[in-house]
Write a structure and sequence with these properties.
With about 230 residues, the chain is an alpha+beta fold. The chain is about 40% helix and about 20% strand. It has a six-stranded mixed β-sheet, sandwiched between helices. The protein has a two-stranded antiparallel sheet with strand order 2-3. It is globular. The N and C termini lie far apart (about 60 Å).
Length: about 230
């Protein structure tokens, strides 16, 4: 299958699973169904993902809450990583490409956070998208603020349940690859572990989170229904 055909197929699939006809697949039992479909999926369902205040390559402050109206796909990397990070970023870029080609582009934000802010200078951060195929239209790479300690983003990764451990004899860090999903409104929804999860399953999961959020906005609450009787 050519790259064009593969992109077109994923775009069609993304459009299909985002349409009302597919709004209940996997439906309200989203986490349970995804667990059956994807062995590398972990439901988190925490009320709030760890908040942060970091900055982008231009020094602009960025908070997780800035994207409260979107599903956030977040991962931790460092530019000098020789193995896992570039592969993970390229996997994220492939997922991003499929989402950009479909109807969800403006409802999903991709965030990369460096755990090596000392060496990942603004120029390095600006170059990261070109090297790994990430589209800045709905992606940003973040680093620590000047007033934060050098290990601030490693501590943030720990808050998300991921360790970046410095090695004694080099600048390398021992770590795993985890893709974190934050729901609309900031709920920490899930993690996709490693590199072997199916891209389409993450896309489907994000689509269902968006559909569920739209359904919640359309559905009147119990209070709305009761008070409506007396109006």
């Amino acid at each position: 299958m050519t790259a064009l055909t593969r992109r077109a197929s994923l775009a069609i699939l993304t459009a299909m699973i985002s349409s009302p006809a597919f709004a209940d697949h996997p439906g309200e039992n989203l986490d349970a169904r995804m667990f059956e479909m994807e062995p590398y999926f972990q439901a988190i369902d925490a009320a709030q993902a760890p908040e942060f205040e970091l900055q982008d390559a231009e020094g602009n402050p960025v908070h997780l809450s800035d994207f409260g109206d979107k599903v956030v796909i977040l991962h931790f990397i460092y530019a000098n990583c020789p193995d896992v990070c570039p592969l993970h970023s390229e996997k994220i870029a492939a997922i991003q490409e499929s989402i950009i080609d479909g109807p969800m582009k403006d409802l999903v934000q991709f965030i990369s956070i460096t755990t090596d802010p000392v060496n990942d200078t603004p120029d390095v951060l600006r170059d990261y998208a070109d090297r790994h195929g990430l589209d800045p239209s709905n992606w940003v790479i973040l680093t620590k603020r000047p007033d934060q300690a050098d290990d601030a983003t490693r501590l943030l990764a720990r808050d998300y349940g991921l360790e970046f451990t410095m090695t004694a004899d080099s600048d390398m860090m021992m770590h795993g690859a985890v893709t974190h999903v934050v729901d609309i409104g900031g709920r920490f929804a899930a993690k996709f572990h490693g590199m072997d999860f199916k891209n389409v399953n993450l896309i489907l999961y994000v689509s269902e989170l968006i559909n569920n959020a739209q359904h919640r906005r359309r559905e009147p609450s119990w209070w709305d229904r009761v008070t409506g009787v007396f109006q």
